Amino acid sequence: MGYASSGAGRAAHEALLARQDAELRLMESMKRSLQAKMKSDREYALALSAAAAQGQKMDKCEDLNGNYYKQMNE
What we know:
mainly alpha, rod-shaped, kinase activity, Tyrosine-protein kinase Fps85D
């Protein structure tokens, strides 16, 4: 199986090149999309972590205040 020596071989070759170019554009688009998703996920994780840390600080503060008020009422 080889390429024909007529113009059909050249047309097939050009069609393959066009297909490869389309696939490269698709892969570049997917790469940009995945990079944007990773950036968004990273920012979400950081914000969630900061919110959780803030919540833990508030819980500790409430626990300390609760213990203080218990001791004062005893």
